[in-house]
Amino acid sequence: MARYEGMLAETVRITGHNGDEIDAYLARPLGPGPYGSVVLIHHMPGWDEASKEMARKLAYHGFATISPDIHYRVREKVGFDAPHEQVSGAVREGGMIPDSQCIGDVEASMRYLRSLPYTNGKVGVIGFCSGGRQVYLVACNIPSLNAAVDCWGGGVTARDSEPATESMPVAPIEMTANMNCPILGIFGNEDARPSAEEVDLTELVLKQHNKEYEFHRYDGAGHGFFAVDRPSYHQASAVDAWGKVIDFYNRHLSTPAGSPSGAALEAVPADN
User: Fold this and answer.
1) 160: pLDDT confidence band, cut at 50, 70 and 90?
2) Burial of 160 (0-12, 13-18, 19+ CB in 10 A)
3) What global pTM score does this model have?
4) In CATH, what class is 3-255?
């Protein structure tokens, strides 16, 4: 008999950093759980269709996933109907999202997930591009995180051409000693940000601090190679890397492995 699979995806409101009410996108399996859960930090282009699609992908695999709009405050000023490109441009012009605000919004997202009756209390984080940098940042500043996935995070290491700013006063790599959860890194060898040399340096520092990590690097893949709607999409690498992500979360967030969907339930007879 076929098993039931279901999912709910919707916009919710959460209380973020400094008590600000912000939007978030929640995708979760239907069923009693308990499920591991994930905070998805969107990329620099914004809280867009691609980010929400990836949240649904994680929900399909059995993880209650929330993606907070960390650009929300800028979007509020620019206009909620403004294109994502306009909002991300305003974020850059404003000096980027403050690290302290990002940490606060991720902590708020974690509290929301842990308040849900069908989650098991274990929370991971995943982020892409600037969100990958922010994954490294929060992994070093939120001790209760259970697992972190950095997808080609640029800016984890410091560059001479990118001095510290008020919003981003310390390169995340300088905080590595405080990392309290295992981290998975996904990188394309054709990427320029981070470059192969920057990934090498990050791995070296993780080893120096005896942190639990695993890095996977892909030949022929550049920046944003998960993006199915961009020329940068690299199918073989993306398929393999997504498998690595799901396996990593299965191991560290205690979601049963081997099931195509944590939302799968035995079908209920029609006369019940």
Assistant:
1) low
2) exposed
3) 0.91
4) alpha beta
